[in-house]
Amino acid sequence: MNQVRVALQATDPLSQAGLASYLRSRSEVVMLRSDDRAEAEVLVVAVERLAADVITMLRRWAAEIAVPVVLVTTEINESELLAAVECRVVAVLPRLTVTADRLVYSVLAAAAGGGVMPPHLVGELLKHIEQLQREVLSPNGLSASGLTPREIDVLRLMADGHDTNEIAGKLCYSERTVKNVIYGVTHRLKLRNRPHAVAYALRSGMI
């Protein structure tokens, strides 16, 4: 079994010691030294709350290390949650509910590309996404994926193996329009070619 490499950062010694004890007690993870943070697959960060200096720290780590973060905190509000998500926080654990099982489960979920959020925080995120769709994306003809309906239709047909002429016929577009759509997607998302665009869209769940 592959162990997940975890780095831990807590703002108080008691939390540092307690969470480290939880992590070291489980075979699924391996604790790194604090100065080996760049080698981590997941960061566990424990704070009382997301003050401005904590968010600054998380932003810096997100830029430098770019690994998912499991956040242990006493309290967090909606605006702090959105800032945390921007800093690669994928799991939030209320401090009073943390156990070794919950912590390790969250670490493993983060390492696998998943996330763990209390139900009320999930609701806040969904409300924010709905607002973003309504006020920003829809007025600009975009979906939550960042693609227009036309781009999604073209990518789906490309994924089914159709060439430019066939796509144009099925969608009643000119071949030039189809080529422009494909160029727009690959250029905006910095993709190399058509197969790369299809693979990216499939992996990202866009189509």
What does this protein look like?
By secondary structure, this protein is an alpha/beta fold. Helices cover 52% and strands 13% of the residues. It contains nine helices and five strands; from the N terminus they run βαββαβαβαααααα. The protein has helices at residues 13-24, 52-64, 78-86, 100-111, 119-137, 149-159, 164-171, 175-188, 194-203; strands at 4-10, 29-31, 42-47, 69-73, 89-94. Helix 6 (149-159) crosses helix 8 (175-188), helix 6 (149-159) packs across helix 9 (194-203) and helix 7 crosses helix 8. The longest helix has 19 residues, at 119-137. The protein is elongated, with a radius of gyration of 21 Å.
Brief summary:
The chain is α/β, with parallel strands linked by helices and 207 residues long.
Report strand %.
5-15%
Kindly state the percentage of residues in helix. 40-55%
**Uncertain spans, ≥5 residues at pLDDT below 50?**
none
User: How many domains make up the coordinates?
Assistant: 2
Distance between the termini: 33 Å
CATH architecture of the largest domain: 3-Layer(aba) Sandwich
Counting DSSP E segments of at least 2 residues, the number of strands comes to 5
Quaternary state of the chains: single chain
Helices, by number, come to 9
CATH class of the largest domain: Alpha Beta
Radius of gyration: 21 Å
The best one-word shape is: elongated
Order of helices and strands: EHEEHEHEHHHHHH
Largest sheet: 5 strands, parallel
